[in-house]
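FORM 7B: Structural annotation worksheet

SECTION A. Query
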Amino acid sequence: MSRLQTETGSAALLTRFFASCRQRLTQRALPAASLYWGEAGLWSFEPAQTAGQGWPDFDSWCAAHPRCSVRLWVGSAWLHHVAVPADMPLADAAALQAYVRLQFVHYFGPVAQTWPLALWQQGDQRSGLALQEQAGLNLAQVHSAAGRYGVRVLSLRPAWSQALAVAAALDPVWACASSTALGLLEGRCLTWLSLRAGQLAGVEQRYLDIGDEAELQALLPGLQAHGEITDAARLTGWGWPDQAPAAAITCGPASAVWLAGEVR
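SECTION B. Predicted structure
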């Protein structure tokens, strides 16, 4: 190989390297977009927007936003939670994962064998979270589309975790109460988050049959009693920060602008 060929090859490598650096710097400089993915479809939220925008699928969003960064918030309808009994003898993380997987397979059948899992432990409390993959909501498809368009996926988290972070930031005193809760209503799916002294103590899901205010109001006392909630619970929906039950029911996913950005 001649010296000229070597130098030409080195120059090409340097060009690609600096182009990659510029792309990464651009991604970090621009505000990250947020995408909500749930029963209501796919919606994008950006800090400057006053309402979300609907998209047919993740591939379409990536094609319209090449080389951007994005956070994915998954709706509660596609997430399932299981609490592990404190006295369950599980020796390590592998045993915990096997137990959690077994529970999901028991309730949802063999299809749950391949669902992505996330495990978390807080003191003696251990829990598992499963992503029920759908057509278009599949981790392999997400990574494939992101790779084709140079999109940087920063995170994939439950939408309720952002709702909890926003609520705690707006009222830290409430969030640190000895026993309280936050209810997030997404369509007819209510996610009930129990808090103990500022720590997440439990996640429950309930589905409304009719989806009106009377049904929601009838459901709340039982949830508060079951979780031994002693402080005032909060209720919100897509239309944050209005916490009135009627607003939680009537607001659509486009109004969930609280999903934009990230609370630190």
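SECTION C. Observations
Residues 17-29 have pLDDT under 50 and may be disordered. The first helix runs from residue 3 to 29.

SECTION D. Sign-off
Analyst initials: ____
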